[in-house]
Design goal:
The chain has about 230 residues and is mostly helical. The chain contains nine helices and four strands. A hairpin with a 2-residue loop joins strand 3 and strand 4 (about 225).
């Protein structure tokens, strides 16, 4: 983590790229690696911090609503007892939470959301996925500089938008690897029949010529009007 320049040595960047693009990630579950639960930032000490405990404290410092409140906000049935959590959480985990919280209403969002069964194809359960979706939606539609906003003065033309949408992680990796000559078009997805490895030359590029200003330069008496630049006072 403290030596990023090692990526630039020899074939390291290309090897790392090939590994990330071809090796499938491990299956996800509700467990967290002991490196972040017991040895976070230990700096040669026997033990370190506990990221999960820190997250719970952050949850309380920011005054987040309870897990049950957010379940209801996301359209799930509000739990009226511990047993009602059984629709998304395993019974043995519910028993552990019973020993830690006085009431089912006290469960922290950070805890309840983290132990929900994950939705197929996602890295989160229904409650966290709901929050993530809402957050990304608001971030996009609330940003007046979002690139798809059709502002007549600052927005892109349809031709420019078409070029921007050609951009991909696959193209980015092809552009930056010295020895990367092929890549699956959906670089974040595993190689498959529907996502085959293709030559980098077959992966679309953004045509920046679409950004050339087509407006004619103003001329007077066949002499180009140039506004002089003034420096200093």
């Amino acid at each position: 983590m403290n030596r990023p320049a090692v990526i630039e040595i020899g074939d390291n960047f290309d090897s790392l790229t090939r590994g990330h693009a071809t090796q499938p990630e491990e299956l996800t579950d509700i467990n967290f690696d002991r490196e972040i639960k017991h040895f976070l930032l230990r700096r040669n000490m026997p033990f370190g911090g506990d990221l999960r405990a820190i997250d719970i404290q952050r949850n309380r410092d920011h005054g987040l609503a309870s897990y049950n409140d957010l379940r209801e906000f996301c359209g799930l049935k509000r739990a009226s007892s511990w047993e009602d959590y059984g629709d998304l959480i395993e019974l043995n985990i519910i028993e552990k939470m019973k020993s830690l919280y006085a009431s089912h209403e006290d469960v922290d969002l950070t805890v309840g959301g983290a132990v929900e069964a994950h939705i197929t194809g996602a890295l989160a359960g229904p409650t966290f996925l709901c929050i993530l979706t809402e957050q990304f939606y608001r971030t996009r539609v609330g940003d007046r500089f979002w690139y798809e906003n059709a502002d007549p003065l600052t927005g892109f033309t349809e031709e420019q938008l078409a070029e921007i949408r050609k951009a991909s992680m696959a193209r980015l990796l092809c552009n930056n690897g010295n020895q990367i000559s092929s890549m699956q078009q959906s670089a974040f997805k595993a190689i498959s029949e529907s996502n085959r490895v293709v030559s980098c030359s077959d992966i679309p590029k953004v045509d920046v010529a679409k950004w050339i200003d087509q407006k004619p330069l103003v001329q007077a008496n066949n002499v180009l009007n140039v506004v002089p630049l003034h420096y200093g006072n």
